[in-house]
């Protein structure tokens, strides 16, 4: 089922619900979760989470300031910790040297979180490695409310910010920060100062910019100021004007911009106090795959929104959560508590179930590894502020439910290659009927800004029963290095739990590792096994296996142990090196015959290599003819 079919099913359900509502028969609470999703109960949080990041192991890192519910008091300290969605537990990891309130953040190659600047005029940089905060070199400029973007070699590009004006800087691992004087953001600064001069809480102090790495390797600026730009990060940097969004003069302060597909952005909502009303319901896509951006209007959201968060889902759809219509900070009046899901194929919106708590200024939202969405925070405005929300809710999208409201069966991925490079390949083993494999990059967010979040759909072919070879996008500016979650979406539109894939910088090797045939095996139950599979590989490679009989394991190039369950097993050994992978499949008989040993030299093999050849290409073409999801 493609995204259009999914949207049609939901649209029919939603139209029926809306018709009944118009007749006064049902309210939104009566619509089934297969049409509008479902929210969890409210989860108490140790502080107001104003910033958040996804960690490769599924935990969510959040932080506030040196106060749990108020603006900082000048102490270089941050309340921060992790939430584990699998068991609902929190762990505290305070940063004792850096106030990270309203700082910029990026996700690095190793899945760690880089945070730079912060309240009110700081140059400190910190990195969270999953267990502790580590000090990184200071920036040259103080930077507050500044966006950061991860680049194709793993660098972090820090853009214009309060206290830093029009300057830009580049962070590199083991080298620290360097200036990019020709990547001047003077036009952005002038437009920002003009908006600030209007006054009012929606315009003042908003410096976070919509910045995204484009397929051409340049950083594209899509807003919130009216003008758009291209920025170069090589050498001393550079800048080029890219016009305005559909010729509009409207700013989109605290609006949202998300990369929902390769080089394609969805921009929605935002406030401009020069306009009446201040907040916008309009939305548009911006295609940045070419030399000039192509901007197209899409249908309006049901409600105008400012301060809302956008999250790309495993299906490639986008959900927007929260915001208010007034554009006023620290104000829950006129809150929009009905999320909407945007479908890239229909280019339309569908209203979802209402959440309980308003989510406005300083709220966050992120995809969870199991396909649900966390929405949290709002406020951090001190005693007596009614907009403080030290809590969270979790949304289960419609794809997680059957039509009768029960939980939809989730496809299972038995094995996924754990690493990849642009232009390479990886393997997935599953017993489920998978329609498409998608990658979602882990990101970090604050003030509705998540520059690293992106979605890539993959091309796959079945090379053995339930074994898929998946081609990885060849452009490292699209497949940005770092941690991604791979989802398999079945024919009913239901995604699997995400599997973490670490994408290394650079391109894959030209050739996959050579992996020669492994003979079929036969072993009695309980007999000790020692099968050297490393001898089948020429050159260095990481070896993994799937389908092993219970009691056997692959370690240090040898399959060993004692199988304790009789049966016929289809075993696949994978060799991974520099983003390329190869496989060999063979049969292992346990408890049959009069003894162990080699049965024959059967088995199937693939040299991988990223390009689909021969039978793999035929599988792919047959899948297309059968109406399966388009290739990315």
Polypeptide structure, described:
With 632 residues, the protein is mainly beta. Among the domains are: 413-508 and 613-625, Immunoglobulins (Immunoglobulin-like), CATH 2.60.40.10; 514-606, Immunoglobulins (Immunoglobulin-like). 8% of the residues lie in helices and 38% in strands. The strands form 12 sheets. Strands 41, 44, 47, 48, 49 and 50 form a 6-stranded mixed beta sheet that branches. The protein is globular and about 80 Å long.
- What name goes with the CATH superfamily of the domain at 413-508 and 613-625? Immunoglobulins
C-alpha geometry: globular
* Relative strand content: 35-45%
Oligomer: single chain
The third-level CATH topology of the domain at 413-508 and 613-625 is: Immunoglobulin-like
Helix vs. strand class? mainly beta
Radius of gyration: 25 Å
Tally of DSSP β-strands: 50
Helix content: under 10%
Q: Span from first to last CA?
A: 16 Å
Mean pLDDT figure: 89
What is the CATH architecture assignment of the domain at 413-508 and 613-625? Sandwich
What's the CATH class of the domain at 413-508 and 613-625, please?
Mainly Beta
């Amino acid at each position: 089922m493609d995204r259009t079919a999914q949207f049609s099913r939901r649209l029919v359900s939603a139209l029926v619900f809306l018709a009944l509502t118009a007749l006064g028969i049902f309210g939104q609470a009566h619509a089934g979760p297969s049409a509008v999703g479902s929210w969890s109960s409210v989860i108490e949080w140790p502080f107001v989470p104003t910033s958040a990041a996804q960690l490769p192991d599924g935990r969510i890192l959040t932080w506030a300031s040196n106060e749990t519910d108020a603006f900082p008091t000048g102490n270089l300290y941050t309340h921060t910790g992790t939430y584990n969605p699998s068991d609902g537990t929190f762990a505290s990891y305070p940063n004792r040297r850096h106030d990270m309130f309203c700082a910029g953040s990026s996700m690095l190659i190793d899945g760690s979180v880089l945070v730079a600047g912060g309240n009110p005029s700081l140059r400190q940089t910190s990195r969270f490695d999953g267990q502790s905060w580590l000090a990184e070199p200071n920036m040259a400029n103080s930077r507050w409310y500044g966006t950061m973007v991860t680049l194709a070699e793993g660098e972090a590009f820090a853009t214009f910010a309060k206290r830093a004006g029009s300057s830009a800087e580049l962070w590199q691992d083991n080298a620290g920060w360097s200036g990019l004087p020709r990547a001047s953001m003077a036009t952005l600064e002038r437009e920002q100062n003009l908006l600030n001069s209007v006054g009012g809480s929606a315009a003042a102090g908003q410096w976070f910019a919509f910045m995204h790495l484009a397929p051409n390797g340049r950083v594209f600026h899509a807003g919130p100021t009216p003008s758009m730009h291209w920025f170069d990060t090589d050498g001393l940097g550079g800048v080029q004007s890219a016009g305005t969004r559909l010729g509009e003069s409207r700013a989109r302060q605290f609006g949202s911009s998300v990369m929902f597909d390769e080089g394609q952005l969805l921009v929605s909502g935002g406030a401009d106090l020069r306009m009446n009303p201040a907040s916008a319901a309009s939305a548009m896509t911006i295609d940045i795959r070419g030399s000039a951006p192509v901007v197209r209007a899409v249908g309006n959201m049901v409600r105008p929104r400012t301060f809302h968060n956008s999250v790309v889902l495993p299906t490639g759809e986008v959900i927007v959560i929260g915001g208010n219509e007034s554009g006023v900070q620290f104000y829950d009046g006129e809150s929009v508590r009905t999320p909407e899901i945007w479908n890239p194929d229909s280019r339309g919106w569908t209203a979802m179930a209402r959440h309980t708590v308003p989510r406005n200024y300083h709220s966050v939202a992120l995809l969870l590894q199991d396909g649900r969405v966390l929405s949290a925070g709002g406020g951090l405005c001190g005693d007596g502020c009614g907009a403080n929300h030290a809590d969270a809710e979790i949304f289960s999208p419609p794809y997680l439910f059957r039509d009768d409201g029960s939980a939809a069966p989730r496809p299972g991925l038995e094995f996924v290659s754990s690493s990849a490079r642009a232009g390479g390949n990886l393997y997935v083993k599953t017993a489920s009927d998978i329609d498409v494999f998608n990658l979602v990059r882990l990101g970090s967010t604050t003030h509705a800004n998540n520059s690293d979040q992106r979605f890539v759909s993959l091309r796959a072919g079945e090379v053995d029963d339930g074994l898929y070879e998946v081609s990885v996008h060849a452009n490292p500016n699209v497949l940005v290095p770092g941690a991604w979650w791979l989802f398999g979406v079945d024919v009913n539109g239901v995604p699997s739990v995400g599997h973490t894939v670490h994408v290394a910088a650079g391109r894959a090797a030209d050739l996959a590792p050579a992996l020669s045939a492994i003979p079929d095996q036969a072993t009695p139950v309980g007999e000790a096994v020692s099968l050297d599979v490393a001898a089948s590989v020429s050159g260095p490679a990481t070896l993994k296996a799937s389908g092993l009989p219970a009691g056997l394991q692959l370690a240090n190039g040898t399959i060993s142990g004692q199988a304790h369950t009789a049966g016929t097993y289809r075993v696949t050994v994978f060799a991974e090196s520099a983003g390329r992978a190869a496989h060999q499949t063979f049969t292992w008989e346990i408890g049959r015959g009069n003894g162990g040993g080699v049965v024959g030299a059967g088995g199937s093999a693939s040299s991988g290599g990223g390009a689909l050849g021969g039978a793999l290409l035929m599988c792919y073409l047959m899948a297309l003819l059968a109406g399966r999801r388009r290739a990315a």
